[in-house]
Amino acid sequence: MKRPPFVTVLFLALSAAFFLVPDFRQGLVWPLAWPLQGLVSATGICIGGT
Amino acid sequence: MPGPIVGGLQRFLGVGPISAATLEHYVRAAEAHCDARTMAFAAANMPDGTEALRLADKAVGLSPQLTWIYVLVCPKVRWQRSDLAARREEIIHRLEAWDPDNATPYLLEASGIAGSRGAAFPSFFQFDRLASESAWCAAMAKAFAAPRYDSYSPRWFDLSRAWLREHGRATPNSLIYESLTVGPGLHAVAQAGSYADVLNKELGKKAEQAGRTDEALADYWSVAHMGERLQVQGDGSWEQMLGGKMRIDAYERLVPLLRNAGRAEEAATLSNTVSQLRPQQDVYRGKDAFAQSTNLKWTGLLVQVFAGLLTVSVLALLLTMLYLLEQWARPGTRLRLYRHAVVAVQYLPAVLFLACLGFYLGYYPYAANFHHYMTATGEVRDLEPLLWNVLPSRMGPPGNSNAALGNPFWPYAAYALAGLVVAVLVGIPLRRRASLRKERTGPTENREAA
Lengths: 50, 450
What we know:
Order of helices and strands of chain B: HHHHHHHHHHHHHHHHHHH
Number of strands of chain A: 0
Distance between the termini of chain B: 82 Å
Largest sheet of chain A: none
Order of helices and strands of chain A: HHH
Helix content of chain B: over 70%
Structural class of chain A: mainly alpha
Number of helices of chain A: 3
Helix content of chain A: over 70%
Radius of gyration of chain B: 32 Å
Radius of gyration of chain A: 19 Å
Structural class of chain B: mainly alpha
Number of strands of chain B: 0
Strand content of chain B: under 5%
Largest interface: A-B, 37 and 51 residues
Oligomer: heterodimer
């Protein structure tokens, strides 16, 4: 088993740091929260169709 | 309450609506401490109508200035139950007594009358039959005569926002969930549009034909003023649209009547107002080409694309690492896949980092908007911008406000194809020359080696 290159570890650490930012986590939830998005889109369609 | 792991994960991610079990936990504490605000918040969020009504009763009993919470609770209750019929009337009369100058309780009363009749109630386009529904017309007449229109949405926004912050539950998702729980409901306000048509197309028209000009004028002015209140004091685009339509319909009937009555100055003002209102209505209906834009749709799409890339790269990285761990634990011959996995695990963190960076930069304005709305002071009049300013939902203001986006890769594809052709044309002679050189030098090298 070879030791991973420093750059790989660096990118991994920098990526992990993003997940510690509350705004990042909350934002990530939204695109994956399809049911809520469906509700909001439906509301938009209702509003647009009135 | 959710388990410690699920609850902790939900809190870490900031996801999910507040569950009924969680609400019950807060309700128990609120009942022990006579906390009327928490009870009102729970009443508006509780999915069970009977429990919501019980909590609203307790909250209003403790703090009568929260009586407006009934407006949010009423749509949840199954009023068809015979034991609740009298209760509904009592609540509506309580609301009317508490806020007599507001049209909203009367709109709820009218909506309740229509709802209690079920299929026996006329369709909202049968104006002649609606005009003979005396109880419904009487409730609507009170709503149209009320000097104010307040759906209580600003009060609800203030209460829910403060509660979410106090209890550490302020997330974009929870803010949107709570903002969607507003007002007396589209159905109740939409019925005001039907009553406006009853006055314009049935009662006012008949009075006009019978020569009772003053009566016709009173009917049309009543519709016009209700439309003005919906537009000026309403808090949503559909109130703006409905109010605008009511005003246009009423003013167009008022103008000839006023001219005939020798009131040319008033008629001219109303005529100009109609000319001003029509383009405003067109914006809401998506007919104003210069109010359309691709920006909102595109930024929402970018955030979702980066979120997808991020998810794929995380999954790919995890799977590759699991595969390598499994291979290292089992000595033996390595497959070709192993060599690819070793290379992939070195490059995937860079891909993941770029996906995280792209997503964060794309989402940042939405996060900044959320923090701004959570702390902004002053009365909130329109909650709808929250839907497209806090969440990258690819939708914008009502109406067809998104201009055609097209495919950004079509113009690029032609140049990319041309570049590819040039690369191949340049590459072929270079490769041929390299292989010729190898052929010439090859035998010499072999001889030297021998």
